[in-house]
Design a protein that fits this description.
The complex is a heterodimer of chains A (111) and B (113). Chain A is mainly β and 111 residues long. Chain A contains no helices and 11 strands. In chain A, strands 2, 4, 5, 6, 9, 10 and 11 form a 7-stranded mixed sheet that branches. In chain A, strands 1-3-8-7 form a 4-stranded antiparallel sheet, with no helix packed on it. Chain B contains no helices and 12 strands. Chain B is mainly beta and 113 residues long. In chain B, the strands form 3 sheets. In chain B, strands 2, 5, 6, 10, 11 and 12 form a 6-stranded mixed sheet that branches. A 4-stranded antiparallel sheet of chain B has the order 3-9-8-7, with no helix packed on it. A two-stranded antiparallel sheet of chain B has the order 1-4. Classes of the chains: A mainly beta (111), B mainly beta (113).
Chain lengths: 111, 113
């Protein structure tokens, strides 16, 4: 039982490049979330999903897209990376709205 | 507005002292949940407690205790006899009716030996 895993753990991009972050959970949770954490701040919700095939915008969705083609996976895409997207990205999942289980995070640097 | 305020940016105490972390929230929802998470230096997020708006009983778990008061919209967290391993950033969060979590900015707790 791996819980929530994130791939990759670290990534450096140049401005304008694209990439996809992968989140996988093996707890059969319906709800999945993508957050970003900037220094000295709490987590901010980017997008979330309440089930396979459904996604919704969170607090800071601009510049990101997501897909939930399979229940266990939630992908976060950056189409054209900007330095303002340098952050630590956390994925989480939960059984309905109960406590969220977090992945270890992905540290992304955009030069 | 839905908001969580953790006014203490950083707290530093000597080991074995008691320490209280403050959390004040704003919400128009009549039903809501409050959470505390811990983020140690290693970076992972660790769930500590969830409390729903109908249950104002204080909770104690070992050296940890939580004081929930709806009248003052506060959900404070106390560590008794702090230890160096308690050093971390602690986040308070409010769950909205649409299941989104609103997070406070966090309080960095430093426990000195």
């Amino acid at each position: 039982n791996a819980g929530v895993t994130q791939t990759p753990k670290f990534r450096v991009l140049k401005t304008g490049q694209s990439m996809t972050l992968l989140c996988a959970q093996d707890m059969n949770h319906e709800y999945m979330y993508w957050y970003r954490q900037d220094p000295g701040m709490g987590l901010r919700l980017i997008h979330y999903s309440v089930g396979e095939g459904t996604t919704a915008k969170g607090e800071v969705p601009d510049g990101y897209n997501v897909s939930r083609l399979k229940k266990q996976n939630f992908l976060l895409g950056l189409e054209s990376a900007a330095p303002s997207q340098t952050s630590v990205y956390f994925c989480a999942s939960s059984y309905l709205g109960r406590k969220q289980f977090f992945g270890p995070g992905t540290r992304l640097t955009v030069l | 507005a839905q908001k969580v305020t953790q006014a203490q940016t950083e707290i530093s105490v000597v080991e074995k002292e008691d320490v209280t972390l403050d959390c004040v929230y704003e919400t128009r929802d009549t039903t809501y949940y409050l959470f505390w998470y811990k983020q140690p230096p290693s970076g992972e997020l660790v769930f500590l407690i969830r409390r729903n708006s109908f249950d104002e009983q204080n909770e104690i778990s070992g050296r940890y205790s939580w004081n929930f008061q709806k009248s003052t919209s506060s959900f404070n967290f106390t560590i008794t006899a702090s230890q160096v391993v308690d050093s971390a950033v602690y986040f308070c969060a409010l769950r909205r009716s649409n299941y989104q979590l609103i997070w406070g900015a966090g309080t960095k707790l430093i426990i000195k030996p």
